[in-house]
């Protein structure tokens, strides 16, 4: 019989997340590439706790892997078509991810994952409305409304209102001229945002139900060469331009200016990339000479910066990264000409070994993601109860069949952790569900043997 251990805590045992002071390569990626006969890293992506890498094999098939422990362990994603190349897109730490695929025979497809890249389904039938020249570059979604841009500027942009099944042209911005470069696309609440024009055309906003774009930056009569744009988790719009950074907390109605001097960015260098890193903002600054190229973290208040370039020296292109992505805990990147190496900055959670204050609010009902995940054969499930009462915590397979009952009885309020031993179960995806009175939460976990 399976042994279940129930432990009650006054505090929750979670890992403390510290930030490393330099960049390092992830050795397990080297092993993955060698063991799986991969040709190198072709793209990277990060979402929630996971980082993804895709890679070719000699027969041009493409494989997608993910890790959620900072690169220590890697799992192959259940992609439906190994002959397709993958570009992954997600918005604001949502577990829904979309992928763009182009097969060896030219078929174009949009794929969707609702479990943060563990498994995928194809949403677009055949080539849908994609032209022969369409190759996805940037993507944004609001529920089932999607927009996708192409690397070919003349092809423009497409929009789908049915989750990617059908697509229509959606080119109009900047006085009806859609034939401009699109630097970034993202969404917040019910609006899409688009940064257009390599010459600093500006930032545009479009409601999910609208067929047109409204310019929100720069303001009328102001001329600024815009480089990059993003939205933070709190909804702050951030614009990087030649003189510094501007931000708006009211969706583009008003803007606050921060100069390069204010933020310690320095007088020279182009802001080549800008991404979210937790509550902070990461800037990749590239100088023409490459001598002063650097990576800067701008704090959440946008008042100061910290240089985090240490560890990336001793390379012909300075600190410059080819791909760069981040989740809440780590930044990941690849360097030009080094397709076999994945670099990281920061540290992933290391397990349930440090005692800190409870991660739960006293009156909050919450079911946490199990840790570790993926797991073999046991894992810990933590949850918080706002009041005492009857509690049920059960595990199901994907057919909806109950495979384990971890808790079934009265429990006190507060934080709890249950150990689940899955030695008798087969590898695969499982669902665990916590119910207490009218409260109900469900999560997924992956068993790999």
Describe the protein.
It is built from 2 helices and 36 strands. A hairpin with a 3-residue loop joins strand 27 (323-326) and strand 28 (330-335). It is globular and about 65 Å long. Strands 1-34-31-30 form a 4-stranded antiparallel β-sheet, with no helix packed on it. The chain has a 4-stranded antiparallel β-sheet with strand order 2-29-28-27, with helices on one face. It has a 4-stranded antiparallel β-sheet with strand order 3-4-5-6, with no helix packed on it. With 449 residues, it is mainly beta.
Describe the secondary structure blueprint for this structure.
Layout: E1 5-9, E2 24-25, H1 27-35, E3 43-47, E4 50-56, E5 62-67, E6 75-76, E7 85-89, E8 97-102, E9 108-113, E10 121-122, E11 136-142, E12 145-150, E13 157-160, E14 168-169, E15 182-188, E16 191-196, E17 202-207, E18 214-217, E19 226-231, E20 237-241, E21 244-248, E22 256-259, H2 260-263, E23 270-277, E24 280-286, E25 294-298, E26 305-307, E27 323-326, E28 330-335, E29 338-346, E30 366-367, E31 378-385, E32 389-396, E33 402-411, E34 414-421, E35 428-436, E36 439-447
Antiparallel strand pairs: 1-34, 2-29, 3-4, 4-5, 5-6, 7-8, 8-9, 9-10, 11-12, 12-13, 13-14, 15-16, 16-17, 17-18, 19-20, 20-21, 21-22, 23-24, 24-25, 25-26, 27-28, 28-29, 30-31, 31-34, 32-33, 32-35, 35-36
